[in-house]
Amino acid sequence: MYLRDIISFSLRASLGYPVRTFLMLLAMAIGVGSVVILSTLGEGARRYVIGQFSNLGTNLIIVLPGRSETVGGPPPLLGITPRDLTLDDAMALRRSSSIRHVAPLTVGAAPVSAEGRQRETTILGSTPSLLPLRQLEMAQGRFLPEGDPTRAAPICVLGYEIKAELFGAAPAVGESVRIGDRRFRIIGVLSDKGESVGMDMGDIVIVPVASAQALFNVSSLFRVMIEASDRDAIGRAKEAIAAIIRERHDGEDDVTIVTQDAILATFDRIFVALTLTVAGIAAISLGVAGILIMNVMLIAVSQRRSEVGLLKAIGAPGNRILTLFLVEAAILSLVGAAFGLILATAGTWVLGRVFPDFPLFMPLWSLAAAVGVALSTGLVFGVLPARRAARLDPVQSLSRR
Length: 401
Description:
By secondary structure, this protein is an alpha+beta fold. The strands form 2 sheets. Strands 2-3-10-5-7-6 form a 6-stranded mixed β-barrel. Strand 8 and strand 9 form a beta hairpin. It has helices spanning 3-15, 18-54, 87-92, 130-133, 160-167, 209-216, 234-248, 260-303, 305-313, 318-354, 364-390, 394-398, and strands at residues 60-65, 99-114, 117-126, 138-141, 155-158, 176-179, 182-190, 195-196, 199-200, 204-208, 223-228, 255-259. The chain folds into 2 domains: 3-52 and 265-398, no CATH class; 102-229, no CATH class. Pfam families: FtsX, MacB_PCD. It is found in: Cell membrane.
């Protein structure tokens, strides 16, 4: 028999039992679709996190007060700082040629009120460098002006959500708001930047860093965000930061320096492992589909005993019978995989409509892996029924014994 004849024979055999064939195709389609959709969700989650960190800016370095080795916990939540990270420390970092922008940060929460409306929100103290460093955009007015960062100027920039809640459609620039027990003049309103690593830039008020320190009665910084002059300068900037802080802190290495690339690399490894784990769990459904193929084909062997007996009676060797059943299993696996890919594409489209802001991406490796595993599963679980068919006695098969 030629390959064309073998394929034609297998197709006719499959179409001869539509219910059996439908069940096998459905099981394989569900298995392949599950692997691809879950892999797509895992890859989408990885890209979402990377996109969130990319919104912070480029070539970023973050300096945190305290070292994680101090108490074995992640700073600044659990670290014990021998010396505070101060505004003077942050300003001293400007002298490195590898550093383009330095933005010290002080963060707290306080009630913000204007025109009889009030709400609690996040207050972020920083300097004019925060605008280019975080790639922020202004919808109205201007950002914090250049000047002495130690001067507590009574000015602020509102996030677009805070502006809408306090002033509605009325212009806010030039008006005053009360933050805590202090009054600030509004000089600008941020445009819609969305969330960035959990911080909603619309639901925030930005004030000069010295004003925030006076408002919350603190002298230390929450952290310092730094932009290196270019990607190649990140390593030099990190070394310069460590050297400057060590010099100012009496030789103590009491800060933690984290680069944006290091954070992204860590998240990337986590999500790759998570995606592979989830895809592996979904692949179990392919094993279930393979068991179904084996069981249904074992039944098919008993149903087609006379057909097998006739083939063997006219001289078909056992390996030819084995080939016929394996080709049938392979065809069913490939067709089921094709339906599974269609199912995965439709599911991804629906998820994209339900969650339009989530970056769904179907990785090519998941398509190839799902089809490959489906074919392998069909062949592996099709061997036992094929071998049983190949060993049938032609006389007993024709006599239906």
